[in-house]
Amino acid sequence: MGDVIDIDVDVRVARDFGGANVVKNIEENGLSIDDPKKTFFTFDCNPGGCDQKYAANQHVCRLFARRNNIKVYDINRGIGTHLVFEEGLIEPGQTMISTDSHANILGAIGAFGQGMGDKDIAYAFSFGKIWFRVPSTLKIILSGVPSRSASPKDVVLKMLQELGSNGLLGYAAEIYGKYVDSLSLDGRVTIASMATEMGGIIILFPPNKDVIEYYKRYFGRDVKPVYADIDAEYDDTITIDINDLKPKIALPGSPENVVDVEEVEGEKIDSGFIGSCTNGRVEDMKTAASVLDGRKIAPGRVLKIVPSTDRVWRSCLDNGIISVFKNADALVGSAGCAGCAAGQIGQTGEYEVEISTGNRNFPGKQGRGDIYLASPATVAASCVAGYITTANNIPSQPETRFSLPKDMKKVVKKRKKIKIVTPVFKTKGKAWVINRDNIDTDMIFHNRYLSITDVNEMGQYTFDNLRGYEDFAKKVRQGDIVVVGKNFGCGSSRQQAVDCFKALGIGAIIAESFGAIYERNAINSALPILVAEKIATKINDGDTLIVDFITGEIIDKTQGKTYRAKPFSKVQLEIYRRGGLLNLPDKKVG
Asked: What is the spatial distance between Cα 372 and Cα 379, in angstroms, rounded to a whole number?
């Protein structure tokens, strides 16, 4: 053990997360592809392409794949580590590496899978092999049989409770026991997928009859599993008692912080998530449907469900499971990773409490909320009840109330009396002349930044999607004046396209005309805007301007010329005077 060896890898996979960097590493180093038939891309982190960076990375991989005859499992297919055994790309006894840290779910079929970084995968793409340090081996025995209400997720949570987040650190573990022998492939996937959360390299299951028949049924192949030798040596043997095990749950903050569900029963929730590489299989969906059938999600709660692969999704459709989910008012997403990956279904907001079948609940992993980890049955039951409970304890009437955060005073602040500051009605600054019409809000403040809510952070992104002005925010100075053409700010209704200028301290924006919504947003935010005919053709870039908001006079000090803009209207003047629409005066505006 501990020897470093080179291994020829049977399957080499890059995801949309990291795939573009794999391509970059190969191209920058002038490398080629060793064997396209063993090389794959899988797009599972953001199958909707709703994040523009993910969408861009996905297409970088597509283009590279076309040039090199590489198979792409695109955004409609699902989680890559599931696809490799669903598609028969790998079988028991073989090896696979991926940019997915949960590649070790292949232990479920008795194959070796390991997650690796971009450089490792690029090397394997190019040379077909990679170095490994041979891990030490542990033997895990699951003793006894859990209660009928417990699932494989509850069992693996029990393992986390016993072993902790580093109990398998650096080890390859083999798992045995009567319960293990009885597990279906889906149940094995659930347990194998959480080896990472225990620090393990992999948890290997000896292939049982179900796994062997799976390859015969779907692919017509007789596989030859690899089993441990009778005289195999282990660093240690760990026995975990699961006899009569009850449903378990991991408290927010760490997957190892596990208790019985009954210890936190009654804790109110805001949302639930069923899916991920841990619990996105058909058995998981059937379990959730059995709880939700004929029931509704509790008022004000949300349940998000994401099957792991397209095959699972179609099976749910064919068997009426999707109808059960929709009738229960759940949201069903496209196959993929979901909650663990930013930009797809399953993320949470600050103070949101979610119960999830995912494999991780570290702070920030699924957004800014608090995440409990539990089985599909517990998640579904809790979403029906409105609070954490088990499938055996769903109330006849759901909880309609919510728990407010203890520090809610920080969230909802009592409005303080606004201190009115005497505004400046005349400004002087350097002109930034952009003689273009129809500059829309995506050019001003691109939609990839829409999650930003702090105005102070917005300025740096101003015009970074306007060709020729990508560095505007770095060069502009406080008090500078923007001069543009017609229909400035057309497009969406985003407030950030106004607030970004305020963050930079822009003195005024003068245009031949403004988009209707943009004009309202600017006036309501007390950003000085004026309309002047063909103004962008009259003033030169860099001219020094003095602008009077009340009279509309524009003095070009550089050219020694004076122009006229429409002065502030009565409403605009009043809103500007008090610093914004929501700085409420003693009497109504207008």
From this structure: 9
- Distance between CA atoms of residues 274 and 52, nearest Å: 25
Report the largest interatomic distance among the alpha carbons of the chain, rounded to a whole angstrom: 96
Q: Which residues of 136-149 are buried (b: 16+ CB within 10 A; e: fewer)?
A: ebbbbbbeeebeeb
The residues, ordered by sequence, that sit 6+ positions from 136 with a Cβ below 8 Å of its Cβ are 1, 2, 170, 171, 172, 235
Q: Is the dihedral of CA 157, 159, 165, 170 positive or negative?
A: negative
Please state, in angstroms and rounded to a whole number, the distance separating the CA atoms of residues 338 and 75.
12
| pLDDT tens digits, one per residue of 375-434 | 999 999 999 999 999 999 999 999 988 877 766 655 555 444 545 556 789 999 999 999
pLDDT number for residue 51 = 67
Q: Report if pTM > 0.70.
A: yes
Q: Phi/psi at 12 (nearest 5 deg)? A: -125, 125
- How far from the centroid of its chain's Cα atoms is residue 408's Cα? 26
Dist CA 344 CA 356 (whole Å)? 14
Residue 47, both tokens: 């199958």
Interacting residues of 406 by C-beta distance below 8 A, sequence separation 6+: none
Domains of the chain: 4-131 (3.30.499.10), 136-241 (3.40.1060.10), 251-405 (3.30.499.10), 426-578 (3.20.19.10)
Quick one: which H or E segment has residue 27? helix 16-28
Secondary structure tally for the chain: helices H, strands E: 19, 25
Q: Residue 370 in contact with residue 352, Cβ under 8 Å?
A: yes
Distances (CA, A) of 139 to 197, 207, 258, 283, 394: 17, 16, 22, 27, 38
The per-residue pLDDT for 583 is 80
